[in-house]
């Protein structure tokens, strides 16, 4: 994990998946990296990683990214709340609170259908469930203000009612995939469901396990977990199209790392049966670690997309690193680390 974290910081502006310029520091891609980096920082032996994250916050005046309603541009708020927890500096979360307060008083009127105007002003694509809801859950936890929780619950339920396939216990990426088939199988994008699965964990970490809100997320989580170990590949990863292993044999490490993270968390918290799920975690983690180069670059990360595609051993992305670091923190605990 340290090797991967150090490599990523050293190559933070690197162009590793044919991009023409680096991502903006507040972009969702980097926000997903920061989520994992903050988890790694909490177990590292020094504050170097916290300082690196804090520097990004300071340079950007603790602002969220530019689109007021878009969940992708809210994701960096997760890192801000984690830094607030460590440093207790109110300015780190003040802009995030202000922006969500605005959204709650001026909620989007858009429908969740893909072709409606301003459709991504609400969480109508499954990636969004990793980006924005955990920020609201964290704000609820650190402020004690229930309005953040209530807003998150109503929007999350609307998205789930729209995107969740009750037969397969997986999420469609968005409305465009409801009736699509890929080689005769329904299209459930691996990283898209990885976003959701990791998002569920990051939300539940903030809630009272005895609350009805927690029970709602736990129900979805357990259904997904059961499906995920059914469809894990013999090599340990998950296919880019979750139901189409034979058509997508190439490993993919961003979605798969999120599954390892979520499953290991479930075992660690006594939610998933260790005898059943630990072998899947072990196989998954070993598969992920086998795709780290000797320098510390995580390979086989699918480039930015919205559907199953391709991945290569020499291509990476910051969100893949974030997923890997998230996974590692839970795997480390599972095998005896503090």
Automatic annotation (TrEMBL):
Keyword Lipid biosynthesis set for record: no
Keywords: Hydrolase
Matching InterPro entries: 6-hairpin_glycosidase_sf (IPR008928), 6hp_glycosidase-like_sf (IPR012341), Glyco_hydro_88 (IPR010905), PolySaccharide_Degr_Enz (IPR052043)
Protein name, per record: Glycoside hydrolase family 88 protein
MF terms in GO: hydrolase activity
Coiled coil start-end: none
Pfam families given in the database record: Glyco_hydro_88 (PF07470)
PANTHER family: UNSATURATED RHAMNOGALACTURONAN HYDROLASE (EUROFUNG) (PTHR33886)
Record-annotated membrane-spanning stretches: none
Superkingdom to which the source organism belongs: Bacteria
């Amino acid at each position: 994990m340290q090797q991967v974290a150090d490599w990523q910081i050293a190559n933070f502006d690197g162009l590793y998946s044919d991009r023409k310029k680096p991502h903006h520091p507040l972009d969702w891609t980097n926000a997903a990296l920061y989520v994992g980096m903050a988890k790694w920082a909490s177990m590292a032996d020094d504050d170097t990683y916290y300082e690196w994250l804090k520097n990004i916050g300071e340079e950007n005046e603790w602002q969220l990214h530019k689109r007021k309603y878009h969940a992708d541009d809210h994701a960096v708020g997760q890192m801000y709340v984690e830094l607030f927890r460590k440093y207790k500096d109110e300015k780190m979360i003040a802009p995030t609170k202000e922006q969500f307060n605005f959204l709650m008083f001026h909620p989007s009127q858009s429908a969740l259908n893909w072709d409606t105007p301003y459709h991504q002003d609400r969480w109508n694509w499954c990636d969004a469930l990793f980006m924005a809801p955990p920020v609201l859950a964290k704000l609820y936890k650190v402020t004690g203000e229930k309005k953040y929780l209530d807003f998150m619950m109503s929007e999350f339920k609307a998205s789930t009612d729209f995107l969740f396939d009750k037969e397969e216990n997986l999420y469609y990426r968005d409305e465009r995939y409801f009736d699509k088939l890929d080689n005769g199988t329904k299209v459930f994008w691996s990283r898209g469901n990885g976003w959701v699965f990791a998002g569920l964990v990051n939300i539940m970490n903030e809630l009272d396990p005895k609350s009805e809100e927690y029970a709602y997320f736990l129900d979805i989580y357990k259904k997904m977990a059961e499906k995920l170990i059914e469809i894990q590949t013999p090599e340990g990863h998950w296919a880019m199209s979750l139901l189409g292993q034979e058509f997508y044999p190439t490993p993919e490490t961003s979605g798969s790392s999120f599954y390892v993270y979520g499953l290991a968390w479930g075992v660690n918290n006594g939610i998933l049966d260790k005898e059943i799920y630990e072998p899947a975690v072990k196989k998954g983690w070993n598969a992920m670690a086998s795709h780290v180069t000797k320098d510390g670059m995580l390979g086989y990360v699918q480039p930015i997309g919205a559907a199953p595609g391709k991945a290569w051993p020499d291509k990476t992305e910051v969100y893949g690193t974030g997923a890997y670091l998230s996974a590692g923190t839970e795997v480390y605990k599972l095998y005896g680390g503090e």
